[in-house]
Automatic annotation (TrEMBL):
It comes from Streptomyces siamensis. This is Succinate dehydrogenase/fumarate reductase iron-sulfur subunit. Residues 1-102 form the 2Fe-2S ferredoxin-type domain. Belongs to the succinate dehydrogenase/fumarate reductase iron-sulfur protein family. It holds the Pfam family Fer4_7. PROSITE patterns: 2FE2S_FER_1, 2FE2S_FER_2, 4FE4S_FER_1, 4FE4S_FER_2. Residues 149-178 form the 4Fe-4S ferredoxin-type domain. Keywords: Iron, Iron-sulfur, Metal-binding. InterPro entries: 2Fe-2S_ferredoxin-like_sf, 2Fe-2S_ferredoxin-type, 2Fe2S_fd_BS, 4Fe4S_Fe-S-bd, 4Fe4S_Fe_S_CS, Beta-grasp_dom_sf, Helical_ferredxn, SDH/FRD_Iron-Sulfur. NCBIfam families: PRK07570.1. The keyword Iron-sulfur applies.
């Protein structure tokens, strides 16, 4: 395939960015999207130009680092991570726009790389347990009802990629935060911090400058791991329960 790429280039966090246009030829339909960008960067390096900076790590759909907005969609036209998106999803002659996540809480570092440390600080606020569990226990040592185990596992699948924030018209982080809260709050190991966890993590989320949730639903649609929209309502119930219990308003 021969493709036209319109890529966001920004030298650093303080510089003004702009879209730059490149042509790439001989792109195989079996290439991943990141392999296509590797091909572009090889050509740029041979020309003595600065390669396009983009985030990636495992390239197996696990780490969530490969955060790109492709033709206006977080991670592109398929419901998967960018690293698992293949060029067979595009046609010869296509023009592809490639941009970083767009959210005030995710400032651009360079080109397509954004700073997602706001997510780390939300986790640090309460995404942990303090129960001394020691080494891995026997599978049935702590009985957990099957519906609770399934609910926790479904939310534990969140990889923190930030697609929910990028897709949300308000730049909200409610789906990410709710996934982390619900994963732990439903398990007995997370019970000691159940109330403080939701209050602290929601407070940190607000402090980071993410937008408010209006239940547009774009977050769940873009999530490559299928975190459901009802995760947000479950978190809201937890937050209301905690505020009533603690007397906070």
């Amino acid at each position: 395939m021969k493709l036209t790429l319109r890529v966001w280039r920004q030298k650093n966090a303080d510089a003004e960015g702009a879209m730059s246009t490149y042509q790439v030829d001989d792109i195989s339909a079996d290439m991943s999207f990141l392999e296509m960008l590797d091909t572009l960067n090889e050509e740029l390096i041979l020309k003595g130009e600065d390669p396009v900076a983009f985030d990636h790590d495992c390239r197996e759909g696990i780490c969530g680092a490969c955060s790109l907005v492709i033709n206006g969609d977080a991670h592109g036209p398929e419901r998967t991570t960018t690293c698992q998106l293949h060029m067979r999803s595009f046609q010869d002659g296509d023009t592809i726009d490639i941009e970083p996540w767009r959210a005030s809480a995710f400032p651009v570092v360079k080109d397509l790389v954004v700073d997602r440390s706001a997510f780390d600080r939300i986790i640090q606020a309460g995404g942990y347990i303090t129960a001394p569990t020691g080494a891995a226990p026997e599978a049935h040592a702590t009985p957990v009802p099957k519906p609770d185990a399934d609910f926790a596992f479904e939310h534990a699948e969140c990889i923190g990629c930030g697609a929910c924030v990028a897709a949300c018209p308000n730049g909200a982080a409610m789906l990410f935060t709710s996934a982390k809260i619900n994963h732990l709050n439903v398990l007995p190991q997370g019970a000691p911090e159940r109330e403080s966890r939701v209050l602290d993590m929601v407070a940190q989320m607000d402090e980071e400058g993410f937008g408010g949730c209006t239940l547009a639903g774009e977050c769940a649609t873009a999530c490559p791991k299928g975190i459901p929209l009802f995760s947000i309502t479950s978190m809201n119930k937890e937050w209301l329960r905690a505020t009533r219990s603690s007397g906070k308003r």
